[in-house]
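User: Predict the complex.
Assistant: Input components as received:
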Amino acid sequence: MFVIEIENLTKDFQAGFWRKRPVRAVDNLSLTVGRGEVFGFLGPNGAGKTTTLKILMNLIRRTSGSARILGEPVDSVAMRRRIGFLPENPYFYDYLTPREILTYMGRLFGIPGAELRGKVESLLERVGLAHAANVQLRKFSKGMVQRIGIAQALINDPEVVFLDEPMSGLDPLGRREVRQVIESLRSRDVTVFFSSHILPDVEALCDRVAILNKGRLQESGPLHEILKVRIEGHEVILGRVEPGLRAELEALCGEIRPLGDRVQLRVRTQDQVGALLAAVSRGGGELISVNPIRHSLEDYFFREVSGQPSPDGPVREPGKGAPGARV
Amino acid sequence: MFRVLAIAGNTFRESIRDRILYNLILFALVMILSSIALGQLTLGYEIKVIVDLGLSAISIFGTLIAIFIGIGLVYKELERRTVYALLAKPISRGQFILGKYVGLLLTLLVNVAIMTAGLALTMLYQGGAEPRSYLNLLPAVYLIFWSLALTTAMALVFSTFSSPALSALFTFFLWVSGHFNYDLLEFSRTAQSAAAGGLFKVLYYILPNLSNFKILDSRNIIQSAAYADPIDAAAIGWAGLYGLVCCTALVALAVAIFSRRDFK
């Protein structure tokens, strides 16, 4: 059974003051998400991501089509006991403290007092807000509000979590913490459906993605299939390159780019990598790094969505354990 | 029910952290206290002046609280987008609206209680009030509370679809027309054309009648309290029932409007 089922979903808004005309925000969208999946919902601004999420949360009524979560229609109040939602650029009552907000949200689920107190404390700890538990939200930075937004989405131990731009407004440290939260949800078999503009995070986290453009589903599936990942070569960074070694490397690889006291070069084949490493070893050079070069989601985005090539071209894959290494 | 109470509790907390509320209560208490000075100008009628002014202050400032907090009740939730996270929880839109309304009624109840206590203490300070004068405060305040509940319900309806400025304007218009509702009935009788007469009659029945909470027989409730007249319990009962029906209808209307809204 799919946890999220969207079928031929369409939403038209009425635009114009005097002469109303329909503007299609979501156009015949169909997709499914399975249990325990981390699903990335991507698209440029105005693609219809937030509208789709709002339809799923029953904040906006669909024009046609259907959407079901956990087998129930999106207007089911009972179903909402089992889901969590973080809106885009969330805003909460600024006269409340994080502890008060989480307690309030918990009460809406009917969580009994002692259990709720425990949940609130553990969530505050989990999102790194335990130190500010009694500070009114009006004194919070955007990143801190985002964290309380994530905490309130998890107060009911949901089976499915919808996150609209969860990394928005966060510094690198905050982004890493959100990534850890999403990874911990995955390990608990919680389904995560999130929209994001921060493509490396999507690449690092998602099992499958859907790419939306102008309200239409452009592509959907496992990331490696969408990207059609192939290694385009390797990027090598070397240190201590003496003139003799430099000449040998130039003969082997062509152009060498200086990077301070180091050099960067690109090789196309595995054989070239072997030959290069042997030359470095012979010439007394220092091997700093070897990284595969592949197309990133960003490249795909530029190519397929905006119709332009990525300004940076294919990117090198970061080192071990870094985003993208799974792909 | 616990969800409605949770929302009501938060609305109450929001209201009591609003500075407007304290300013209005302060003004009301100052006005009640100043009635001591005015009472000195009317030999033998000090208590009447204090009760008259005090109950009027409770009614006026209560109405200002009902309008100024009521108009922002739902609008603020939409403007600040707090409603997005809230409506994704297992609550219906009806429960949300009812919770907001009950929360503001709770705020009004506490405020009216504080102002009434202020008035009773002022009477006690002045001295010479009959026990009936103190007792008569209760039905008077009860009816004032119903008129505030009805004003809040009107503000709530407008708050579900218009800006605070327009909501305040519409609510004020209804509040004024509500106090002159019997004149509409009079107009319907004296109108030259049948169409105009019919229109006035329809308006008389459609628009909430706030006079019901004011007039008991020949005197209004504030005057009755001030003169320590016997209070007609049946009239108070009917006025309360009328308030309940009107408030229920208006809250149902607010729910119907809010339930059809898209939150873009």
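Residues 315-327 of chain A have pLDDT under 50 and may be disordered.
Let me know if you want any component modeled separately.
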